[in-house]
Specification:
Helix content is about 45%, strand content about 15%. The protein is α+β, with helices and mostly antiparallel strands and about 550 residues long. It is globular and about 75 Å long.
Length: about 550
């Protein structure tokens, strides 16, 4: 038995609540902060919570080489190594707290030969053992552990993982466990001078089952890694469709609205009832509404470029001193409020990412509020948007490091367009057409954060995403022809993104990032953050 046996050959099926709407988090970037936290949580489990030294290495050619400090990777990773949730209010002080806990963390930028721009290599030590982990952040807070102790693996935090380390006979033990246990997969891995069995299941593997197999295998260590995603995967997983074209075919004899199709999809994907899916989205909508209100009331945080501005927008709008933008002004208010909460380390919902957390939620909730619609209609609109996000996640990416801001604000704009059509009680065909037009309009959008912070031009691009979505929604409702099918536009977005130079993909090495003003702001802010990173070497 080799490590290829039992690997799933099924297509990957994104979840609305894993990839498209979520995570619920604090921090400037889901690709950096939330993903790093999840990687840290799994690394902590691998060490059974006993950490003394951690070496973190980033590749010289990757995005993290220039952004790991300013966009929250260091902060998120430390929070995860401490075992925290992504919403923990202590997250901003995680570096100081981990240092106070006696854990030495060192970062280095070195030549790893990494093929993914968001690659982490962790060397973990305590008094008696050492493990090495390589992981990637794949966008929107999603991750994959790709190597443990020299063995190639694929762990995405969507299973209960049990690792059984053996001295000899690991392949025989794996075969015995496969026959004995009702689990999703049993995989044997041969690493660098080490071997272990990986057991994927819906719960942690019961240790007493090991006693029923031959003891000659020499089991000397068992590690249990808990899931970090809200929706788990499972063996023999199937969904009714995974592309927009497949959805249209599935709906040919049903004539369901897009939000109802989202229920069908997520129920199958997550093994959830329709009611459970609705309740999950209701919870997220309540969080978004609370964050909007918090932003309007005002936020404070020292390490950011922009202060609180949404409150002033509300005052001017109420006083009739703004141009008449109809519901767009209410959308702008909600978007800016959400972006300010994100930048102040408040709780937000990454939808589809933290850098794009204002566009879709702000457009949807802002428009619904202006239209006097119910929370139930907000939930339906967000579900419709989530299904468009599933198609993007399955066919492309949400990572700006891979495909530029078109993958974040651009994808968010397409999702927003579908949500707005849903609020207007448009058809599924109209919602899909609006999404296609919106994504077509932002192809090639670059990612060039000013001063290496996820604030400028991110704020304006979130507003642009919603404005574009509103225009496309109305065009679709009026019967405009999108011409290019959504699946083809998503495919094109990924192709265009990969053709962008790395300087324009969230590395802060091009575009507005290298303007004179951006560099001056970066120097000013770095004097503040330098005090917080005395023992972090890069």
């Amino acid at each position: 038995m080799n490590e290829q046996d039992d690997r799933t050959t099924a297509r990957d099926y994104p979840s609305i609540f894993n990839e498209a709407i979520g995570p619920v988090m604090r921090g400037p970037s889901s690709s950096h902060c939330a993903a790093a936290l999840r990687i840290g949580r799994l690394a902590r489990d691998l060490m059974d919570g006993d950490l003394r030294e951690v070496l973190v290495e980033f590749d010289t050619t990757g995005s993290l080489a220039t952004t790991h400090e300013s966009q929250g990777s260091d902060m998120g990773l430390c929070g995860g190594l401490l075992g925290w949730e992504a919403t923990d209010e202590r997250l901003v002080t995680s570096i100081q707290i981990i240092r106070g806990a006696g854990i030495v963390v060192e970062t280095r930028v070195t030549d790893l030969g990494a093929t993914h721009p968001n690659t982490y290599r962790l060397t973990l030590k305590n008094a008696t053992e050492m493990h090495r982990v390589t992981a990637i952040s794949t966008g929107g807070g999603m991750i994959e552990i790709v190597e443990i102790d020299g063995a190639r693996v694929s762990m995405r935090g969507d299973y209960y993982e049990t690792l059984v380390y053996t001295d000899t006979g690991g392949d025989q033990l794996a075969r015995a466990l496969k026959e004995l246990a009702d689990v999703d997969a049993v995989l044997f891995h041969q690493g660098t001078g080490i071997q272990f069995i990986e057991i994927k299941a819906q719960r942690h593997f019961a240790q007493d089952l090991l006693l029923q197999v031959e003891p000659e295998c020499g089991v000397h260590q068992i590690r249990r890694l808990s899931p970090v995603l809200p929706v788990l995967s499972r063996k023999d997983l199937s969904v009714p469709f995974i592309t927009c074209a497949e959805m249209v075919a599935y709906n040919a004899d049903k004539e369901l609205d897009l939000w109802a199709l989202a229920l069908h999809y997520e129920s199958a994907r997550g093994n959830l009832s329709h009611e459970q899916v609705l309740h999950k989205m209701q919870d997220l909508v309540r969080i978004i509404q609370s964050s909007i209100q918090q932003g309007i009331e005002g936020t404070e945080y020292a390490d950011r470029i922009l202060g609180a501005q949404s409150g002033a927008f509300k005052t001017e709008m109420a006083g009739g001193r703004l141009l008449d933008g109809g519901i767009l002004n209410q959308m702008i208010l909600s978007i800016t409020a959400l972006m300010e909460v994100k930048s102040a380390m408040g709780v937000i919902v990454a939808a589809p990412t933290a850098g794009a957390c204002g566009g879709l939620p702000g457009a949807c909730i802002g428009a619904a509020s202006a239209m006097g619609l119910s929370p139930e209609e907000m939930v339906r609109a967000m579900l419709a948007a989530g299904l468009i996000g599933v198609f993007v996640a399955a066919g492309a990416t949400f990572a700006a490091e891979v495909a530029g801001c078109q993958a974040e604000c651009g994808a968010g704009s397409a999702m927003s367009a579908a949500a707005l059509v849903t609020l207007a009680h448009g058809t599924t065909e109209q919602a899909v057409s609006a999404a296609s037009m919106a994504l077509q309009n932002v192809l090639g959008l670059i990612c060039d954060p000013v001063a290496n912070r996820v604030e400028v031009p991110c704020l304006g691009r979130n507003v642009m995403a919603a404005s574009n979505a509103l225009a496309c929604a109305n065009m679709a409702l009026a019967g405009f022809d999108a011409v290019i099918p959504l699946d083809e536009v998503i495919e094109t977005m990924l192709r265009v993104g990969k053709s962008l130079p790395c300087e324009l993909r969230c590395t802060a090495l091009g575009g507005l990032s290298i303007t004179k003003t951006s560099k001056e702001i970066e120097k000013r802010l770095s004097r503040h953050t330098a005090k917080e990173a005395v023992e972090w070497n890069c």
